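Researcher: We plan to redesign the surface later, but first we want a full-length starting point. Tokens attached.
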């Protein structure tokens, strides 16, 4: 009964998000698209952090590489082939993940974090210090990809609402894919690696192969998010691969709660909305120019007060109530004894 109720509430929520553009302005519809793209980006990292126990500080490299790929290979005179561009972006992203992951996964802990950061910075400087991607100025995507068969357009994401629904569909499919993956034997192996990798090796599992596969899958999902980001704004620059971008998406996973898939989505929603709030001149006036200060303080407060993330808040409240009930019971027992 409880699962049925949850499923019903989920369907209602998805339906409300799907029709949101009809009841709001273009600005808030665009903001919702941005949140969904970052939620997909955060979901890809959640597979590593929450699913496998691999904390990466270079995940933005996959996001940026896919965004640059679709922008560079789209012709200036018309829309490119949707599936060709998406497949190409994913192949390049996964290939980069396979090479860098094979090296990075030979390290652990803080060393893995630093190696992933180093590889991401390498990709960043390739586009930042060369003319491959327009240098620091970045490059523009003038036409969104579309799927055509002759004169028949199967998918044209140039339409704002079609693109909105397409992004929502990508987010839901990615979440469903990861949910099924983590409930599979492969997902169970990843959980075992996160809990105790040495014991998994002793049980005969090739932990390196599992971790590398998860790393490549996470890169592919980040590539889908990068593809959508480029299609949304029509502009990419090297900052998409900067370490700040990797740190931001890592914060989304931690704040939302790395133990559950929904945590990545909730973290993306909360952090993006907080940024919009503190940047609002209608609320904070001229102080909005200094939005980084309250934004940082809010993140510190949330992380400090919610050690298990936002998804862990209900359990945290239940634990507090249980402790209070135990204290009251103990106090009552002492009073009756005296």
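Model: Full-length starting sequence:
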């Amino acid at each position: 009964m409880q699962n049925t109720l949850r499923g019903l509430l989920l369907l209602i929520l998805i339906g409300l998000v799907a029709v949101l553009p009809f009841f709001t302005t273009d600005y808030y519809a665009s903001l919702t698209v941005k949140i969904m793209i970052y939620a997909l980006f955060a979901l890809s990292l959640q597979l590593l952090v929450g699913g496998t126990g691999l904390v990466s500080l270079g995940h933005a490299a996959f996001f940026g590489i896919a965004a640059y790929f679709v922008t560079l290979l789209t012709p200036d005179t018309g829309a490119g082939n949707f599936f060709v561009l998406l497949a190409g972006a994913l192949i390049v992203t996964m290939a980069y993940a396979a090479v860098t992951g094979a090296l990075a996964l030979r390290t652990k802990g803080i060393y893995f974090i630093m190696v992933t950061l180093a590889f991401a910075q390498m990709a960043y400087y390739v586009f930042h210090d060369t003319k491959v991607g327009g240098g620091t100025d970045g490059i523009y995507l003038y036409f969104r990809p579309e799927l055509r068969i002759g004169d028949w357009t199967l998918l044209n994401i140039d339409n704002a609402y079609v693109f909105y629904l397409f992004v929502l569909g990508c987010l839901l499919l990615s979440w469903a894919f990861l949910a099924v993956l983590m409930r599979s034997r492969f997902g169970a192996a990843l959980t075992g690696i996160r809990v105790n990798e040495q014991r998994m090796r002793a049980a005969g599992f090739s932990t390196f192969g599992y971790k590398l596969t998860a790393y490549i899958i996470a890169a592919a999902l980040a590539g889908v998010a990068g593809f959508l980001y480029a299609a949304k704004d029509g502009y990419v620059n090297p900052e998409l691969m900067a370490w700040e971008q990797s740190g931001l998406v890592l914060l989304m996973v931690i704040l939302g709660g790395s133990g559950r898939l929904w945590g990545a989505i909730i973290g993306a929603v909360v952090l993006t909305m907080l940024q919009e709030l503190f940047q609002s001149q209608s609320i904070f006036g001229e102080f909005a120019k200094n939005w980084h200060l309250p934004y940082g303080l809010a993140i510190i407060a949330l992380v400090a007060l919610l050690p298990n993330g936002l998804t862990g808040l209900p359990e945290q409240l239940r634990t507090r109530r249980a402790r209070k009930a135990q204290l009251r019971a103990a106090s009552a027992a002492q009073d009756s004894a005296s």
